[in-house]
Structure formats: structure tokens, C-alpha cells
Design a protein that fits this description.
The complex is a heterodimer of chains A (278) and B (358).
Chain A lengths: L1 H12 L1 H28 E2 L10 E2 L2 H9 L2 H32 L5 H13 L2 H15 L5 H25 L3 H9 L4 H30 L2 H6 L7 H11 L2 H25 L2 H5 L6
Antiparallel strand pairs in A: 1-2
Chain B lengths: L1 E12 L2 E12 L3 E5 L6 H9 L6 E6 L2 E2 L10 E4 L11 H11 L4 H14 L15 H14 L4 E5 L7 H18 L3 E5 L2 H7 L2 E6 L2 E6 L1 H6 L4 H6 L4 E11 L4 E5 L5 E5 L8 E6 L4 E4 L11 E12 L4 E7 L2 E7 L10 E6 L5 E4 L1
Parallel strand pairs in B: 3-8, 3-9, 6-7, 7-8
Antiparallel strand pairs in B: 1-2, 1-4, 4-5, 9-10, 11-12, 11-14, 12-13, 14-20, 15-19, 16-17, 16-19, 17-18
Helix pairs in contact in B: 2-3, 2-4, 3-4
The chains are: A mainly alpha (278), B alpha+beta (358).
Chain lengths: 278, 358
Amino acid sequence: MTLIRQYLKALWRGRRLLIYTFLLCFALLIYLPFLMIALKSIGRGWFGRLWLPPELTLDWYKWAIEVTNIPEITKNTLIIAGLAVGMATLIGIPTGWAFGRYRIPGKELLMAMILLPRMIPPIAYALGVAQIFYRLHLINTHFGVALAHVAVCAPYAILVLSATFEGLDERVLEAASVCGASPLRTFLHVVVPLILPGILSSMIFTFTTSYNEFTLTLMTYGKDTVTLPVRTYIAMGEGYWEVTSAMSILLVIPSLLVLFLIQRQVAPEKLVGGFKGV
Amino acid sequence: MPGLRLENLSKRFGKTVAVDSLDLEIRDGEIMTLLGPSGCGKTTTLRCIAGLLTPDEGEIYLGDERVTDLPPERRGVGLVFQNYALWPHMTVYDNLAFGLQLRRVARAEIQRRVSEALAMVRLSGFEERYPRQLSGGQQQRVALARALVIEPKLLLLDEPLSNLDAQLREEMRFEIRELQKNLGITSVYVTHDQAEALVLSDRIAILHEGRLVQVGSPAEIYNRPGNRFVAGFIGLTSFVEGTIVRQDAAKGYVVVRTRDGLELCARSDVLQTGQEVTVAIRPEHIELYPEEPAVRPAETNFLSGRVLRGAYLGDVVDYRIQVGEWILRAHAGTGAILKPDQEVFLTIAPDRITLIAV
């Protein structure tokens, strides 16, 4: 008993060290793979046995950009993401408005049905999407791939936007109209500034979802609609791990940019700005 | 010229009648409180006046102008909401300036009026703050300044103090009252808090189930409640029921006898023998004696009863006393505390008793 007690006491005294060790392990778990890819993409003749690559090079990036036509693929990815964001937002605004601001019988059930495409295994869902798209000749079109993405993007948009609209206090709008603002002015000067952060964060979320989407793209893409994740997957099959790593790093850059945007987004008044002049 | 006139105003939501043919006139420069329990239609009435609701029937006149069909933005009234409803994305300055900018007031004039309004609510120097950086009381004062800065013809206040803590609430009552008097602005104040209504109103309109029950000055409402509902709603009241059996026309007194033989003398010039009445007695109007006084005070009601229980309230003790089959509440000083089951003697001055015809 005393031994156990002494052991526990020692643990307690060293708790700070324990916590740091745990956090370090956790960080390694998350960042180590990323670090491996980063090193692989700039190293030559490195197979993970040495601590650092023996020779540094940017050749893999050159390869990745030249051989795999990155500009074209990035363009595809951005067009598809743009279309998906547009469609998801267009669906999300009215649906989110209805969910957030009206009492709808069976609201929970409806919400569950909207979230369903995110619940079932993506590969199974993608299989069904592919079968339908082949018949409708939507395979290998930007619109088709984007439409497939909407199935997973729109639930995000609806979820985020219904929360945004639910948080919009009716009395704040009434205060504007009593104060002398016509419905249009109320919309422009009060409604828009208050919902804009929500719409932007919904757009950012749907953008990253579409940008990183793999399974649905794999089942609906063609030679004209190769996206970055799919191309990375193909490069892996070709056996050039260094090039694949370089592409992965390139794939990360826009996601980082978006993450940066989200960080700023936390302070809405910086994004929206005050109301100056009518 | 009246400040505001409501004629036969009615508003229904589905099958429930929220406001039922309400007629009310608010004088120019007066502050009137719409008082009643929740669901009495007071907020619905206020929202109709503001234009946020369209009445099903009736007319609303602001001054001489009929505004029944005007949208809220063209009525030129100021409204203070219970939850303040400040625009969270605007600074205090912008919150106040918005209404003036909509009215195309010149920039320099806007600056002058905004700082004037902020000084009025003692918030000078808070121009660049956002509402979330202010305390509840400060937000409420900004809301008040925002309603006043447009120099409205009418100021509407919808339970503006109910989200504040007790001490601040009491302070703000006086502040609002003083502001209203200084500006001489016709105001309608909605509350369910009778103390608030008594402190800040010129007149009180009591609403019950969508209907107007009584209108009068705070003293009138308190001392001469028009019916049992008003008497029960404003202040504490004990009720005794009986029939008028005698009257002394010369002195203006009547005697009410209850079914268990209790007799109470009260002042009334209008009620006749045979009339069934409810007798309303306030706890502070009952004097308690632990022992039978040697000399009975003349011209007063003298009763005996038994203490049921007492609640110590700090300044007074609130007793429930069984008199015959009735239970009367009485407030007495904390000097000698009466015990339950103790016999006690009560006197009630006839002038202090309110009779309500049944």
C-alpha cells in the first residue's frame, strides 16, 4: 500500500512533466506525418532511416508542376470548389433561414435527412452518385463533380447558416424599423452585416470540404476534371513518392490560407466594419 | 390635443384575443404605464402603437394624425426594448447616429445631438465602445438614448428594466422619470411590476385579459381600486364578502355584514342597502393589539381574531389572522412578535376600507 502511495505521490509531483510529455506525444501524432511529407518533398535520397535528408532539393516541386500540369489541376479544383460553394450557399441560405427562423413540424427529422449523405460511408454514397451520373452524362464535367460535392457541402452550409439565422434577434430588426429604416435599409445596414460572418464561415467550410473531397471526386471525375487530391492519389500509384509529397504540400497551401481567414473571422467587426454613412 | 389616442383597438392571434376593444387616451407630455400580469395584452398594445403589429380593429392617433396604417419607420416614435436590442455590429455612436443619418441630418448636427443624448444618460466618452463591451445598465441607457436622439413624438418603453438587478432597477426608475419630465415627452411604459408603475407614472392603465380595467393616478389606483382584480394586483389586499345592511347617510358610512355575522363599517356615498360587496383591506391599514384595549377607539372597526402565522420581513411582520371565517393579512412592527394561535385584537379605520360592488 505504502509503495503504491509513494508511487502516486511521485507521479503527482511530476505531473507537470507528465502533462508536457503527453502533449508532446499528441503533437507528434498529429504533426509527424506532415513533417515526414515536408522533408520528403525537399530531400533527395532520403528513405527515413537518417534523421534528416542528406541532400536538399526543390526538383520534386519542379517535377510536380511540370509533369503533372498542376496549374490545370488547380484550376479544375478551384472551379469545382467554386461551383460547389456557390450551389451549397444558394441552397443553404433559404434552407437555413427556414430552419433557423420558423417553427417547422418535424424539424429534427428533416435536419437528420439533410445530414444523411454525411452519415453513410462516402464510398457507398459515391457509388450511387456515379451510377446516376453516368446515365445523366454528368461524369467528367466540372458541374457534375461539383454537384456531387454539394451533397456533402450543403449540409455544412445549412447547419452553419441555420445557426446564424437563429441567432439573428428579431427585435434588433424591429429596432431598426422603429428608428426609421425602411425594410431595404434594415436589410442592408442591419441584416447583412449581422449574417455576413455566418455566410462567410459557411463558405469557408464548404470550400475546404469540396477542395479536400476525394471519394466523391474519384467516382465522378474524368480526364478533364482531375482535382488535386485525386492527382495526388494517382501520383502515389505511379511510384514517385517524392513528387507525391511535393504535391501534398502544394495541396496544403490553400487550406492554410483558408485557416488564416477563419482566424480573422473570429473577430467579426474586423471583417464587417462599422456602419458608416447611409 | 392628446398625445396618443387608441380607439376601440383589438388584436387577435388565432383564436386568442390579445387586446379587446381598448379605448385609451394619453395626454400630451404625460407618462402612462400599461400595467398587468403577463398575457394581459400590454406588450401587444405597445407593439400596435409602434407599428410592429397591425391591429385587427380600431384606430391609433398620434397627436392629430391617424397612424393606424403607417409602417413603423414612418411613425417617428422611439422604442426601448426589454433586451435593449442594440445593433451589435455598431459602436455606441453609430447606434445613436443611425436614426439621424436616415433622417438626413447634417454630419455636424448628428455629432452634436449624439453627444447631447449620451450626456443625458451619463455615458459621454462611450462613443467608440461596442454594445458587448458595456454592462446591462449601460446598454439600457444607450437604448434609451437611441430612442430619444431622434426626438420622437412618443417614447415607448417595453419592460425596459426587467433585465437589471434590483438596485439598478430602482435607480433607473427615477432616472427615466426625470428624463421624461425634463424633456416633456409623451411616454407609454409597459411593465408587470407594480412598484415600478407606482413610482414612475402620471397615470396607470391596468389591463387584464386584453381589457382595460381601470385608469387613474397611482394614488387613485392604490387607494380606490375599481374592482377585485385591481385591488388584488396592486399591493397586498385581504378580501371579505358581505352585504350592506345599514347606512348612515349623514356621515356617509355603510355597515357591511358577512354571512358569518361579522360587521364592518366603511365609508361610501354611493352604495345602497342590500348591495352585495367585496371589502378590500390593505395589511398596513390594520392595527394589531395583543391585549384588548381598555378604551375602544371611537368610530372604528373593532375585531378579534387568532394569529395563524407571521412572516418576518425585516421592517414589518406579515401576519395572517383568522377573523371569523376570513383570513386577513396585517403588517405590524417588529417590536413585540405575536405567536401562532395567540388571540389578537384588530382595529381598522372605516376610511381605509374599500368597498367594491359585486
